[in-house]
Amino acid sequence: MERSTACALAACLAAGVVLYRVCRLSSTAGAKDTGAAEVANGVVGLIGNTPLVRINSLSDATGCEILGKAEFLNPGGSSKDRIALYVIERAEQEGLLVPHTNSCIFEGTSGSTGISLAMVARAKGYLCHIVMPSDQAIEKSQLLERHGATVERVAPCSIVDKNNFVNVARRLAQEYRSDKGRGYFVDQFENPMNFEAHYRTTGPEILRQTHGRVDAFVHGSGTGGTIAGVTWFLKQRVPGVRSYLADPQGSGLANKVNHGVMFADTEREGTRRRQQVDTLVEGVGLNRLTRNFARLLPQGGASMLDGAVSVSDADAVRMSRWLMANDGLFVGSSASINCVAALSIARSLGPGHTIVTILADSGQRHLTKFWNDAAMTDLGHSVVAPGSLDEFAQLLSLQGSTKP
C-alpha cells in the first residue's frame, strides 16, 4: 500500500515537472532554444514575449479591459526590435548577409527602427548606417551613436524627393563597397517581412496572452507592419474581432480608412508647417500607402479595418500626462495616441469588452520634444494631467462605425 502510494506521488511530481516545463517553454515561445528556457541566448534572445499590462485607469473608467502590449520592454526599447531581428535573420538565411565581413545594414527611419537595427547588427557582427529626418528628437541620434551606428540626419522632405531619408539610405546601400561585405537596405516601409515579423510573433503572443478573448485591436501606422501583421493574424483566428487605426493629426490614413480618400484637413494648401505629417507625434502617420499598410485595404476586397480614430496633438500630450499621473506609465507619443484611440473605442463599444493596444516605446527617447513641458507649452498644449477622463470628451473624434 505504501509502495503504491509512493509511486502515485512520484507520478504526480513527474507530471507537475512536465507541466511546469511546458508552461515555461510556452511563455518563451519564439526565443532561441538554449537548453534552458530561463536563459536567453544573447541580447537577441530577449526580443519578444513582452507582457500584456492592464491599464488600470482607462479600464476602470470604461468598464472594459484596456490592455497594453509593453513593447518598450524589448531590449532595444521598442517594438521595432522584432522587425530588426526578423529581417536580418532572413537575410542571413538567404545568403544576403554574412556576419563579420564588413557588411553594413542601411535604413531610413525616424529613430526606433534604427536603434533596434543598430543593436541587432552589433550583436550579430554587422556595421549599421542610419539616415533620419533632422526634426526627430536628438536623443534618438545619441542612442544610435551609443549603439555604434553611423548616423546621418537630413532635412525632412517628401518621399518623391531624392533626398528623402528613405531614398538616401537606399542609395547609400547601393553604393556601399567593401572587400568582402555588402550593403543591405532594410526598407521597412515596403518590405513585406515587416508584416511577417508581427504576423508570426506579436499576433500569436496577443492571442495567447488574452486566451483568445479580444474584442478589438487598436494601433497607429508608421510603416504599417505592426497593425497589418497583428490584424491579419487575429482576424483569421478570433471571430468578430475588430481592428482600428489610431492616427495623428496631419496624417491622411484615417480619412483613407473611413472615407476612401487620402486627405487630412490640416494638410490643406497653405496650412502645412512640416514636410511629412503636420504633427508632433513621431514614428506614425503618413500621407501615402505603404506596401505593409496596403495589405489592410485590398483592392477589390473588404477592408480589414473597422474604422479609424483621428487623435489631436493636444490629446496625445494630455494622455501621456494622464498615464504617468494615474498609472505610472511613462510612454512615448505613439503609445499616447494609441491609448486615446483605445479610450474612444471603449466608450463606443461599451463595458465588458477587451481592447488591446501597443505601448511601442517609453518616454525616455522623447525627453527633448514630446516630454519637454516648455516645448509643448510653447506649442499651446497643456502639460497638466487632466483631472478626469471626461476632459477628453470634447476632443475625441471617432470616425467610422464601431458598432457591430
Oligomer: single chain
- Unreliably modeled segments: 1-36, 267-276, 394-404
Assign an overall shape: globular
Would you report the number of β strands? Answer: 11
- Tell me the series of helices and strands, N- to C-terminal: HEHEHEHEHEHEHEHEHHEHHEHE
Helix-and-strand structural type = alpha/beta
Give a short account of the largest sheet.
Answer: 7 strands, mixed
Can you characterise this structure?
- The chain folds into 2 domains: 52-77 and 192-399, Rossmann fold; 80-185, 3-Layer(aba) Sandwich (Rossmann fold).
- The protein is built from 13 helices and 11 strands.
- The model is unreliable at 1-36, 267-276 and 394-404 (pLDDT under 50).
- Strand 4 (127-133), helix 5 and strand 5 form a beta-alpha-beta unit.
- The chain has helices at 2-27, 56-62, 80-93, 112-124, 138-146, 165-175, 192-209, 225-235, 253-259, 291-294, 313-327, 333-349, 373-378; strands spanning 52-54, 65-69, 104-108, 127-133, 150-154, 183-185, 216-219, 242-248, 308-311, 354-358, 397-399.
- The protein is of the alpha/beta class and 404 residues long.
- The strands form 2 sheets. Strands 1-2-10-7-8-9-11 form a 7-stranded mixed sheet, with helices on both faces.
- Helix 3 packs across helix 7.
